[in-house]
Design goal:
elongated, 27% strand, alpha+beta, 3 helices, three-stranded mixed beta sheet, GMP Synthetase, Chain A, domain 3, 3 strands, 85 residues
Length: 85
């Protein structure tokens, strides 16, 4: 399964997602550290879920990383997060 789909599945499983957009932006980072042929190294994620209401920015990021898990996070070089309740 592509990493993009793994990210989507993990987040939908962990949160009551209202909106979710996961974009593989790896090609924009060609030549940079962490880029691999075939992409799947750099992702932009925008998520809206009430689960994040009242959380600090750090708490939101920790919740996202926890939902994705160490194994999946370990295969991603860069992850940009836009998190809103």
């Amino acid at each position: 399964m592509p990493i993009k789909e793994e990210i989507e599945a993990a987040l939908r499983s962990a949160f009551a997602v209202e909106q979710l957009k996961v974009e593989d932006v790896s090609e924009a980072h060609r030549g940079h550290t962490g880029f691999r042929e075939g992409g799947e190294t750099h992702f932009d994620v925008a998520i809206t879920a009430q689960d994040f209401a009242g959380m600090s920015r750090v708490a939101k990021h920790r919740a996202m990383h926890s939902a994705l898990g160490a194994e999946l996070i370990g295969r991603i070089h860069a992850l940009s997060l836009d998190i809103t309740p």
